[in-house]
Amino acid sequence: MNIYQKSFKLILAGNTNIAAMINAIIGATLQARSDTKNSDLTFRQVHIFHSEQSLQALTTSVDWQEALNNYKISSTSLVHHVTKIEDSNVDRFRDLVEQLRTIVNPLDNPQNYIDLTGGISSLKSILAVFAYVLDIENIYSLEIDFSKDSGTRKKQASLFYHDLEQAGVSIKYRKFPPIREFDNFGKLNYTEVLRHRSNINDLVNCLTNLLPSGVDIEHLRESLLSGVNSRLIGEVTEESYSYRHSIFSSSAGVEEVANIILTIIKSADLENKTLGKKLDEVRNIFSQNPKYFVNTETLEYITRLITSVRNDIAHPSSENSYLKDIVAIQSPLSSQLAFAFLQFTTKTLSSFLDKKFQLVNVKILETPTDKNQTIFYFGFDGDFTGDYLKMAFEQSNEDEVRERSHIVHEVIGELKKLIYKTTKDNKSVLFAEGDNILFKAPYQVSLLNDLQRIYKERTGLTGTIGYVQQLIINN
Question: Residues with Cβ < 8 Å from 369, sequence gap 6 or more?
Answer without folding.
Answer: none
